[in-house]
Every structure is written in C-alpha cells, then in structure tokens.
Amino acid sequence: MGHSVYAHDLAESLALVLPHSSKDDSRRILYAIRYTVLAGEVSLAATDSYSLVEDVIAVQEGSESESVILDRGDAERLMKAAKVSGKSGIARVVVEIVDGKARFDLADQQFNFQGVEGQYPAIENLWPQGEPEAVARIGINPAQLARWKGLGEKSMVLTFYGEQKPILVESVVRAGYRSMMMPVRLA
Asked: Is 133 helix (H, G, I), strand (E, B) or coil?
C-alpha cells in the first residue's frame, strides 16, 4: 500500500503551493493543502479563495488513488524535513494514506498527520477550458506575484480570460504547475 515520491520534488511542490493556502485558520479547509494521488501523479493544491494553485509531481513507486487534506502547519513541517532529506537528489518519501490520516516516512523521520475534516473545493471544475479573450490592461497585486518567486524569472505565462474572470498562470519551466487568481480593476 502507499506510494513514494522524491523528497526534493515534494519539498519544491510544497514550497510553491503553501503560499496560496489561507493564513486564516478559522477556515480550516482553506488553511490546508490537498494532497491527492491519481494515475501515477501526486497533485498538491491550495486556495485562499482569492487564488488557486496546483502542482503535480511524479509518483516513483505505487499509485493507489488516495487523498488527504493536510493542515498548513503539518505541511510546513513536512516541507522543511523533505527539503533537508532531499538534498541528495535521490531520497524518497514513502507515503501511506488511510482513513483521513497520512504517514510520511523520510530517511530519518516519520510524520503522522490527522487530515483536516471537510470537503475540499472541487478545483477540477474551476480550471478554464478553450481559448481566452484578451484583456488590454489589468492590475496584479505584487503580493500575488511574490508567491511565484520559486519558479524563477521569465518562466510564467499569464492567460487573461476577460474582465472579472480569473487569470490562468502556468509555468513554462515546471509542466505540472498552474494557478488562477482574480484580477484587480485599475482605476
């Protein structure tokens, strides 16, 4: 049972996704990261209801369909440990998800997390389909842009779907990364 991922992939993905989760712990389901395994991939997703992000990494071994919602604090601790463990480039994290609980086994540590209870937003239905309409002028909150700093310079494609519609942000260098955010109207 379970699956494994490279520790450095998990650490990078969590670093990209965590800034988009809510910082308000009164909305527990948004103060969390959705971790889903499906068809040989792990999808990590977060939303604060203003922006949405999903990053996909490869499963190295095993591929059962399973999902857990990780508390933001638990995800931050896991990210730090995976970053240290992943420095070799080949270290793996063995993950087992059962009944809303997740166990992450790193080379020198084990984390057991109780998943956040509740229904995570159905983000699969939010990603736009088809060709976008161009928008001539739009404002982007600099704090939103700062959340993408881990993807590197000149690595983002912004797709504008029209006024009062979310902006789709995709990475040129990281194929599994995509995000959406609401535009800010310029005065």
From this structure: coil
